[in-house]
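Let us work through a complete example step by step.
Step 1: write down the sequence.
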Amino acid sequence: FAESELEKHFGYLKQFVVEAEQHSDIGQISADGLSGVASIFNGEWRAQIAAINSSIIQSFSNFRTGTEILHAVLGQLIIYYTRFHSLYDKRCARRSNSNSNSSNANTNSVGSVCQPVGVQNVMVEIKKYRNNF
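Step 2: predict the structure and record it as tokens.
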């Protein structure tokens, strides 16, 4: 249930991370893809976390079971988002290094990429739902 709930609300994030981690070279990860995922996540992450909480409250009347599932879903979210943020940081670091080593503009740069929300911010929001069930 936890994986399907995460897929319903953050499937785009999960799919992007899984596909991006298959690349052997971080430079193969699409800057547009990073920007797109960051932009979508930035715009809806709080509402989606609230939606997950509501969905689980409605699906499980047993407090203990609901709490365990909520923690599992939100824990998986943090894992995937941390992996995404790591990919973003590595890709930006590579771009910075390549730009400092050459004067040519990198056509696949991450210069205009939407800055993702910090992992700590997401964790703080998730803590609000820790005992809300």
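Step 3: interpret the result. The CA atoms of residues 63 and 133 lie 7 Å apart.
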